[in-house]
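We treat protein structure as text, and this decision shapes the records that our systems exchange. Because each token names a local backbone shape, the row as a whole describes the fold. For reference, a complete record is included directly beneath this paragraph.
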Amino acid sequence: MIVIYAPFPSPERVRGGWMGRIAAIERLFVDRERVYVYPGDPAHAGNPRDYRVHVGDVAPKAKFAWLDFRFSNHHRWLSQRIDEAEFVYAHTCHSSHHLLPYYRTGKIVTDLHGIAPEEEELQGNPDRARFFAGLEEDMIRGSAALVTVTEAMIDHFRGKYPGMSTPSIRLPIVDIARGQVRLERPARSKPRVVYAGGTQSWQNIDRMMAAIARGRGRFEFELWTDSMPAMRAAAERAGVADVVRIGTAAPEQLPSIYGDADYGFVLRDDIAVNRVACPTKLSEYLAFGVVPIVQLESLGDFLQLGYRGVRVEDFEAGRLPAADELLQLRRRNAEAFAALEREFQRGSQRLRELQPAAARESMRHKASVFLCAHERAAFYPVRWGGVTIDRGSSRQSLPWPEEVGPVVDRTIPIPAGDVVRGIELKLAFPPFLTTPVQVECIDDTGRSHPLTLTGDHDVDAHGNWLFGRGGGLRAVLEPAAAVTRLRIRFEFVLVGPEALVAAASSPAPPARPLRQLAQRVRALLRRRR
């Protein structure tokens, strides 16, 4: 039996690179007994008394369980599955913040997908970058094997962690159903240029729009994305909304789209994230005869495989290959893709035959997997509920990172609009004890507008705020003001049942809505003594 740390890749979920990679690995192990596990909100979350692990059949020989790491029996259940497993397949570095105690078993194979700390930094998440940087070396050195998408990625880790001896398997991303591919293209007065992908920062969408503006009138442009509003906004900023076709395409439609395209954008900056990557988009371009337009040529291992593209500066200047040279480029790139496919087959075979060494130790009865809630709050970040801005005539939810650590000091941009009249905060990892939550709104002159918060919380003898299940806070901004930033500061003291025990043991227990709950906890402790 194999334990796989990931959501189960059901067909409706497989959109985008992350789930596509999980689906590709699922196909390699489809004949093996396997259990998928992933943390999240379980189906029974509405009943706080139901602490069971709910396991369901999701495919032949495959089961799936949502895990809620607030509950020690969920840790115990996972420990038992890992003890029984041949090995554990962990998708991405992001799995390490729940699986790190289990790396000492020697059973965990980590599929890196990318380099998490650098990716988080690139996406503007410096706190998450620091968090994963703190876990990465233990994960890299403790894995039974590393599965990477490129040899460049392994070289990156060897340079970052001298003496690294963890075995590695190179498994590039080539999950492409090609069928019959036609490399020739009809002669066109305006060559067709495509892009298929997201609008994340590393995709260089604004740079692509600038290239489109310079090619106006000489090319046809088609942009296919699941992020249509963001793509349209970028086109409008660049003044090219009238010359591009923007749409959404299902994966099965892409072969037809690529078969009619001459060139394809894949513009990446010269940074570590891109030098180790194996962009699905680039693989697809090579497979279907789309000549890539590039900013960074040395993407992953592609240059060593022999691919060639057109530099974006040459595209903008109109320095393009002649028809016969273009056909030669397509043939050369098809050979590069064939080499990538062979590497995928070799890596797949090695992965199917993988036999990690005998388990170094069992974790079933290790105290370290039953960390108290405060330690879990520091080690496994707390999930945040949300921020809502009240503008009087409308309400607006603001984006907030999925997870926060034990210390929260965040500044959130507030989009321009009507004046702000109030805010609501929600934390979704109760019960918890925190230092007093401080919130202030800041206008574009830098002036601070402090807020007084009210909500379903009590105060312990030390002035800490105690929340029960689903803590919520509200505040009114008097007078209403046009503010541009929201700053939130506090620190978790305890998270989980320990918070209630601490409050119940306090010399001056809470005296508002949560007092009865704290008293019941104290009475229960007395009975147990």
In short: The radius of gyration is 26 Å. The CA atoms of residues 118 and 272 lie 8 Å apart. The mean pLDDT is 83. The chain is about 35% helix and 25% strand.
